[in-house]
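hi! just following up on the protien thing from before. the input was this:
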Amino acid sequence: MKITSKTKIAKLFAKKTLLNVLKKYEVPCVSCPIAKQEIDKNSIGYVCDIYGLPKEEIIKELNKKAKRN
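and the predicted 3d structure came back as:
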């Protein structure tokens, strides 16, 4: 799977290794109870932009992990 800034959060939640990357960068969706209602709509790029997270760095690490699994 190729991860881009348009990849939906739901796809990332589906794989534990990718979820661990989101936890590492403290992506708020991981612990947010409302996120379950929005993960199908919101992309990783959008979430990084609204929370000021290092988008390119996160996407690079997600792709690295996705290639291994």
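Residues 48 and 55 are 5 Å apart (CA to CA).
The two ends are 10 Å apart (CA to CA).
cheers
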